[in-house]
Amino acid sequence: MTITSEQLAAFADGELDEMTAARVRRAVEADPALASELEQVTQLRAILAARFDPVLAQPVPEQLSGLIEDAAKVVNLGDARSARQKFWQRQEIRFGGGLAVAASLALVVLVVGRNAQPADYAGTQFAMVLDDTLSGQTAPDGTKLLVSFRDNSGQACRGFTGNAGSGIACRDDRGWKLKMSGAAASQSSTQFRQAGSADAAIMAAAQEMADGPALDSSAEQAARADGWKVKPSR
Amino acid sequence: MDETSEVARFIHEQALMQNDAFLTGLTTLLPRLRRFAAGLARNPADADDLCQAAIERALVSRQQWQEGTRLDSWMYRIMRNIWIDTARARTRRDKTFVEEEAGMGVGTMGDQETQVELTMVDRALQTLPDEQREAVLLVLVEGYKYAEAADIIGCPIGTLTSRLLRGRSALMAVLGEAS
């Protein structure tokens, strides 16, 4: 009876059923060459552990733990606002389990204009950007419009990223209300964090909020011509 | 409090609790994620960038994680996918900068002998094709069962075991030669 390298490795990894394991064990006891091969296989695990396990004991950089702490704060902020804002009457909460919505409700005062609008509405300047700029275009202030869609109340919404921050704003009868805001477009150019992670975050959130596909360019232009009015989908 | 708001509050509390479980779970996983990243990436800075990208992606798509399922496999899968996504760019870049990187010792502790050996392990791992490297790391370093590792990678178990076997032989050959 011969034992294959694969069986021997599986034996070392604890992946064999009892009977096969017993068979391998007997074979190893009887065959010094096989025993030495097993020894090597086992040793490799130890060598790798010696290299990588010390990472477990290293302190986690704040850069990483901070991301999670920030995410926790975001939820609390959304929570604090809910009492004042009849948060639960918002339609988004009825789908998606509410989790993303709660998290995304950090209505950061992104563009508080010097105007009478409440803090979570776009200021005059920024409202013009949202009014005029088509998706795929970059406004003079550096804001890039990513996508337009309608939420399930039929409001027109726009996802954007820019140097000041990123987010999603939806048009109601008072103006562009910020529904979600996030980090500024990433300037990082390291290997794994090319600019675009903010874009991706906005696109993912838009997908969550959207009722139907994104507006294509003709639908978007029609919506713009129409002043981004609410358009009930059904 | 009317009925609607009570239901709403309940859902809300559930959401917060679920969120807590998610974020706590993520925090607990951080050291392990850093270890996995250390094996995948080629230097500590890249490793933490990879970790950061994985955490960011996880936070964005957290509603895709089903509570009650394993957060660790889900996170490993995210990190592994980001790593694979950048693999082509990395390969191109490394061809250009291979000499610079080859000069970079990773081991920073212990005596001279340990330091040399740590670097050797890294170099040996770098000789492996990506698919063998991830198989080796998931099973031999992270301690996943074959089925779990295959699930993280998204391949059949047979594929995983053959990659693992080839990766393991190659590593033993390289390390055996050096010793």
3D structure, described in words:
Chain A is about 45% helix and about 10% strand. Chain A has helices spanning about 5-10, 20-30, 30-50, 55, 60-85, 100-105, 125-130, 195-210, 215-225; strands at about 145-150, 155-160, 165-170, 175-180. In chain A, β1 and β2 form a beta hairpin. Chain A is α+β, with helices and mostly antiparallel strands and about 230 residues long. Residues about 75-115 and about 185-195 of chain A have low confidence and may be disordered. In chain B, α1 packs antiparallel against α2, α2 (about 45-60) packs across α3 (about 70-85) and α7 (about 145-155) crosses α8 (about 155-180). Chain B starts with a helix and ends with a helix. Chain B is built from 8 helices and no strands. At the A-B interface, α1, α3, α4, α5 and α6 of A face α1, α2, α4, α5 and α6 of B.
In angstroms, what separates the terminal alpha carbons of chain B? 74 Å
Helix content of chain B: over 70%
Radius of gyration of chain A: 28 Å
Which structural class matches the secondary elements of chain A? alpha+beta
Give the helices and strands of chain B as they follow along the chain.
HHHHHHHH
| Tally of helical segments of chain B | 8
Q: State the end-to-end distance of chain A.
A: 71 Å
> How are strands sequenced across the largest beta sheet of chain A?
1-2-3-4
Percentage beta strand of chain B: under 5%
For the secondary structure, the number of strands of chain B is: 0
The tally of helices of chain A reads 9
Radius of gyration of chain B: 20 Å
Shape of chain A: elongated
Largest interface: A-B, 53 and 67 residues
Mean pLDDT rating of chain B: 80
> Hey, roughly how much beta strand do the residues of chain A contain?
5-15%
Q: What is the arithmetic mean of pLDDT of chain A? A: 76
Helix content range of the residues of chain A, please? 40-55%
